[in-house]
Amino acid sequence: GRKLEVIKKIFDRLIKLGEWLRKLNFVKKVIQIKSVLQEQIILRKMIFFSVLFGSWLILVVAGLTSSNRQVYSEDELSTEQNFANGTGSVKLASQTYSKKDRLILLDFELNGQAGSGINPRNLKWKLYSKKARNSKLEVVPIYDKKVMVMIKNVPEDFDAYAVQITNKSVNANDISIDISSSSSSGTVTKKSSKKDWLQFMVTSRGKNLKQKDLKNISRKDLVLSEVNREIKFQNGQIKKLETAVKDMNKLIKDNNDKIKSLQKNATYLTDDQKESNDTEISNLRSSNDNYYQQIGEAKKNIKIVQARVKMLHKKYNDIKNGKLTNYTTVDVD
Asked: Model confidence over 268-290: pLDDT tens digits?
């Protein structure tokens, strides 16, 4: 009996709560709106459509006003390109923007036809921008394959720059030393009509542009820092090659020890076992020959890199002493 009384009290309280809520203006309005929507089917559909359209409009506006909105295609923002006339390729290795210093640093890697760098004298640089009309482009060769480019006077709303590189190098494949027997049978060698320029886009909305405070350092300090970084990298290459030579010499020693052991045990083997034993000795010697060849290549590369480091040290000292001033300055077109 007591359980029934408790349930009845709870039920009575719920009824009173419902009556109290109905007296509130807000609840009354909600109930009225619900009744109207149940009766007005067209109005209900219009409200539903308006909510969907409003949500879509908010998404569109957010996309258009977003600072990270992509307005350039992946091809336009490509960081690796080849000259169509076959004179080499260019890679935009890094992009750094200092808003405080109004400066953009670009690291370019240049590769010619024969795997070497491209002569900086054969390159012509141009800078394009719609908004940043007072910007300047400075080109500083670091070493045979590396060029550092600085875009100065960069406004906060620069949006994008286009850096155009024209390569006037001769394509070795276009050269012909053949002669023809007559004018009718021969063909005249024509200069390639394929374009000799590339264009790299640098945009404030691009994922490749990294923000970094460069602490107002001078152009000289920037170049010295870049050359010093390259020296450290090349020294690391030398260390890696020297370690490889050391490891391969150890492998050769291990193989020679195995060969001696196999030769020593050969007198205790049957004819079938000797054949297998000889094959293993032959394979070990072949591996050693391969290691010797690789060691020779590694030592050649060590000398090449050492010469490069020596040249970089000379360039570092020349820049520090003010002897090297081969900078190219380009205004915005």
From this structure: 888 888 888 889 999 999 999 99
Summarised one tens digit per residue, pLDDT across range 197-239 is 888 989 888 788 888 877 666 777 877 888 898 899 999 999 9
Mention every residue, 6+ apart, whose C-beta is less than 8 A from residue 137: 125, 126, 127, 149, 150, 151, 152, 163, 329, 330, 331, 332
In this prediction the pTM is 0.59
How many angstroms separate the CA atoms of 119 and 145, rounded?
A: 9
Mind spelling out the 3-state secondary structure of the chain?
CHHHHHHHHHHHHHHHHHHHHHHCHHHHHHHHHHHHHHHCHHHHHHHHHHHHHHHHHHHHHHHHHCCCCCCCCCCCCCCEEECCCCCCEEEEEEEEEECCCCEEEEEEEEECCCCCCCCHHHEEEEEECCCCCCCEEEEEEEECCEEEEEEECCCCCCCEEEEEEEECCCCHHHCCCCCCCCCCCCCCCCCCCCCCEEEEEEECCCCCEEECCCCCCCHHHHHHHHHHHHHHHHHHHHHHHHHHHHHHHHHHHHHHHHHHHHHHHHHHCCHHHHHHHHHHHHHHHHHHHHHHHHHHHHHHHHHHHHHHHHHHHHHHHHHHCCCCCCCEEEEEC
Residue type, 90: V
Phi, psi of 325 (to 5 degrees): -135, 35
d(CA 309, CA 144): 12
